[in-house]
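Morning!

This is the sequence you dropped in the shared folder:
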Amino acid sequence: MREEMRLMRETINQQYAEIVKLNRNIDALNLQIRKKNVTIARLEERLSKYEKPGKNSGNSSTPPSKERMKDEVVRRTKPLREPSVRNPGGQNGHEGHKLSFSSRPDEVIDDMPTYCSYCGESLADAERVLDYVTQVISIPELKPVIKEIRHYVPVCKNCGERIRTAPRRRSNDVVYDSGVKALVVYLSVVQFLPYGRIASFLREVFGLTPSKGSLVSWVNQAKRNAQPVIDKIKKYIMSSAVVGFDESGLYCNKRLDWAWIAQTVYYTLLFRAGGRGSKVLADRFGDSLERMTAVTDRHSAYFALHFLNHQVCLAHLLRELQYLSELNTGQDWSKKVSNLFREAIHERNANPNAVIDKVPWTERLDRLLKQNIERLGKKFITFKKGLVKCRDYIFNFLEDPMIPSDNNGSERGIRKLKIKLKNSCTFRSDFGADAFLELHSVVETAKKHGQTPYHAIQALFKV
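The structure's back. Tokens below.
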């Protein structure tokens, strides 16, 4: 009996050890399965990026400079007009456009034959009848005009003093005038050319060889002369009722700074700061923010400030709604919200001076926000929560005709900076970055007042 019990215990212990061993194997296999599941999940997430529609400047806030090449090709080649039944080209009844005649031509050339093509007789004394007139527009030969100024010192017969018109120059006897300086500043600030390409242009077209140091000095001179203008622009913006704001990254001296823009219908001011927080605007504009209606995107810094009123950019919202529509083509919630915003914009455009009650529009939006869209996914829920937060700032443009429905003016004003950075990659000094932003402020303000950028820059050298 004892022997049987011993054998039974050994058998049980062996089976228990086998069970423990099997459990360990099962745990090891489960661990491998979990690791493989994690790997599969990561691969599925990576694959989902290719299945989902890509974000570009048409369906998100992604700037054109960061688009995929495929999206950029589509954007640049896709026509903006909607398809129609009309044939391409000019339509019946369209007058067309052509160059207009100048009433004061700089040169008149008489074109007529000198002999008769039938009998060979000279036509020098023949009667002339004007047949028709054409005008040819040309650019004169581009070459510098060198002026030599001879400074004489007359001696007064009465007292014997030697009189000069101005103190004698202590620098080089050959200098560039304000016209050359204005052209350099124009190419740098308006055409966004780096100094190396400006120097190449002057050398190849005009045969001029100023150093890059001279180019930098002329831009800095324009910046100093523009300081009174910048102060006035800031003063006018601080007293404005509606101001659009935006910000963008700016690489300067091997670090990331931020360029800010504050603009109205008549004035534009760009400036550089070390961050993109609300303190930047509070320090620069102070209590004047409390008297402004701010037109902005949904960056959190703007909602930490105490503006008199606020309007979020509907263009941003419409782009995000476009992405949601592309993300899930089986739903119509995003399209309904988009149509509501477009109807409101159309209502304002159809009645540009009317004061429109925003309450019915807000109620329509509330009904859409109350719908349960949990099934549509995380991105839809996140966007809906964002609309709930800025609900009171969506339709303010209906009640005040002075408030625009979008912040496109600010985006257009600051976009030139990105073109400059794309050409030059970075600013090498704080002074150079500030010079570009301040001179660009002068140029944009001049354009809003009907002046050409080149004439505005010329005026800076006449101070």
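Headline: Strands lie at 242-252, 255-263, 268-273, 293-296, 309-312.

More detail when I'm at my desk.
O.
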